[in-house]
Fold:
Amino acid sequence: MKTGIIGLPQVGKSSLFRMLTKARLSEHPNPREAHVGVAKVPDDRLDRLAAQCNPRKLIHASVEYVDVAAMPVASAKTAAGDPKEGLSDSIVTNIRGVDAIAHVVRAFDDPSIPHVGDINPLRDIKNVDFDLILSDLGQIEKRLERLEKDLKRMRSPELEREHDLLLRAKAHVESEHPLRDMPMTPDDKKRVRGFMFLSEKPILYVLNISETHDLGRELEDAIAKYELTEVAARPNAGAIAICAKVEAELAEMADEDAGEFLASYGLKESGLVRLVRKTYELLGLISFFTVGEDECRAWTIARNTRAVEAAGAIHSDLEKHFIRAETIHWDTLLDAGSEANARARGTLRLEGKDYIVQDGDVMHIRHSG
Ligand SMILES: Nc1nc2c(ncn2[C@@H]2O[C@H](COP(=O)(O)OP(=O)(O)OP(=O)(O)O)[C@@H](O)[C@H]2O)c(=O)[nH]1
Ligand SMILES: [Mg+2]
Structure:
């Protein structure tokens, strides 16, 4: 699962990417190539399970981030009525390849770093969303033209269904709404999957705010203060505030000092931890765990996955030869002290293929392979 980091120039995209993935970027990157890096998904539940079973290896879940090049500055100028340049092919290609978008929006104040106009996150969000929508509209129109030619030559129920759906999508984007909030049936979704529409991807608005003494409270209030409550509440969207400047300092610190540093700002945890968790949520992902002396590990699956497919996330053989899954919720296991105790207490359940795996389940797959 990949999340693309996008945004206007100089808003803090690469700074965030570096901190999330602890990657080093070259000084002179090739603008056509996006940087890809992996971020660990912090999980206190897994850490506590590991403390109980003391494994040789501890493996957290991860999400991939892509540092997409900056959106064209023209994105910020639509209100002036300038003809739009549109997105470059390389940006479109890079965004198409991701499962979700993190849009970094500037809210920090710093006269030494130029920004298009004054600080206005809602305007920037609307303009960048507009660019995504415009790119999709171009694609929809091209496909509709082709479809109409084909339909003249030959009637086909499948082509007609696609035609109806695309007409609906066209009306939707023409009213300046992103496809991510257009109601679609699972069949509709399948029909448009191949287009990889940009405005259909789930989006997280990441508000990069200034460093202040009362940062804890500022972070809590920022979404409302910049009037993002409404856009963040739309389907497949979300918002989070962070302070990249403070995160950069945190990233340089030893763990012992970090806690004290956070507390001095009235914070409980780092913004990066919240950001990664939000991304995971936005992608509709949950974790289940496997535990043992050799390895404690988090596995990533989509919400509402059946036990047999969850087994497949570990290994395809486990899916093929699945018999049952010994299952227990992580906190019940902690409570019992060990799997053996849990079994004795009768809190370890045996679940079949169709069991819907819950976030935080600990599973042991029994198989015949
Ligand atoms: N004051 C302040 N400066 C920041 C903050 N975040 C980033 N910057 C600075 O803004 C400049 C741009 O940061 P980058 O992370 O390179 O931004 P970017 O969005 O990747 O920029 P482009 O890729 O060039 O579009 C750098 O000089 C950063 O140090 C912040 O929260 N506060
Ligand atoms: Mg950059």
Q: What stands out?
A: The domain at 304-367 is CATH 3.10.20.30 (Ubiquitin-like (UB roll)). Residues 7, 9-15, 70, 108, 110, 113, 208, 243-245 surround guanosine-5'-triphosphate (ligand 1) (CB under 6 Å).
